[in-house]
Amino acid sequence: MSFWEYLPAYELSRKPRIIAAFDTDFLRNLEAFRRSIPSDEAWTLLLQTGWSVQEPKFAAELKNGLAEAHRLFPETRIIVLVNEKEALSILGESAECVWCHQNAFLDPARYPLAGKERNFDAIYVARITPFKRHALAALVPNLYLIGAYSQREKAYFQEVMQTVPHAAWAEKVNSWRIGRQMGRACCGLALSAVEGAMFVCGEYSLCGLPVVSTSNIGGRDAMLPEFAVFRASDTPESVAEGVEHWKAHPVPPQEIREEFLRRAAVHRACLEDLLASIAGKRVALPHKLGIRCHLWPHQKLLHGIRKK
After folding, report:
1. Is the Cβ–Cβ distance between 62 and 53 less than 8 Å?
2. β-strands 211-214, 77-82 pairing
3. Which helix (H) or strand (E) holds 19?
4. What is the pLDDT of residue 3?
5. Torsion angle, CA of 173/179/180/185, rounded to 10 degrees?
């Protein structure tokens, strides 16, 4: 194993050790974490939930994983940061939980406000996979899709492209440029029925885009400015109606961004206070808490956990 391989996590503080990771990234790599962190060390783990805890199968898997983690790391304080309030009662006594929404930790500097020039009616930034339900955008006339697909789902990707042959498509956009691409559209789409909190919805809001969203579980609704959401039913006609609504009734981008930041401030303060109570000092909160995002080599050296 290479000395330069790192675990899927971010060390927010070394003394005391506080680590952030997504739930599945940690729970599927328990042995690797146990080899890399001294077994007798007392440390704190923040786990972000990557899927809706309201889905019974996922909730059961998470509870089982947490039980095993507590067994392997008896000295570790594990805190689950949930995106939906319902998770607090669902997880119950199986986990220490805090309602602390992941979208609050997006770095606003990465997302410039949209300007007046809009080349597209709607943009959908989403991996092309069944749960994202791209077919619901079939009647949006001037559509921009950004999202890759896995080779095992290539047939599904081809099916989607046949459903929206008029759409412009980019497989990947650099994370520092995604905000400018979003600013080319009149609104953003969020069409899944179940997933996690959907970082992209927060990115839409920071760019000042209103959203067309279907009914869902996972937590994205909590951070969306209510005055900038069209709640569509699960039909292409309703989604297209929502897009036309935002074209006809635009909302000033600054108002959307400011309301999102107001909501985000509550969750940021919650985590800042929690970390200060643990570390006895202020702990910096990087973009997305440093997890599932690109890190420069110096960031890995300072905040990465090397595999052993």
Report:
1. yes
2. unpaired
3. strand 18-22
4. 54
5. 100
Which token pair is 20? 């952030």
**Amino acid 74: pLDDT:** 93
Question: pTM of the full predicted structure?
Answer: 0.95
Burial of 232 (0-12, 13-18, 19+ CB in 10 A): buried
156, with CB counted inside 10 A (0-12, 13-18, 19+), is: middle
* Pairing between β-strand 18-22 and β-strand 10-13 as defined by DSSP bridges: antiparallel
Please say whether the beta carbons of 164 and 156 come within 8 A. no
Q: Could you give the angle at which helices 199-207 and 253-279 cross, rounded to 10 degrees? A: 130
Side chain identity at residue 248, one-letter code: A
Residue with tokens 């042995």: 31
Instruction: Quote the DSSP letter at residue 154.
Output: H
Q: How far is CA 173 from the centre of its chain?
A: 17
149 vs 47: CA distance, rounded Å: 26
How are beta strands 44-48 and 96-99 bridged, if at all?
Answer: unpaired
Asked if 240 and 136 touch (Cβ cutoff 8 Å), the reply is no
Residue with tokens 């921009």: 144
List per-block mean pLDDT (blocks of 10 residues) for the chain, which spans 308 residues: 78 96 97 90 96 97 97 95 97 94 97 94 98 98 97 96 96 94 98 98 98 98 97 98 98 98 98 98 97 92 92
222 close to 204: Cβ distance less than 8 angstroms: no
Q: Which amino acid is at 228?
A: A
pLDDT given for residue 2 in this prediction: 44
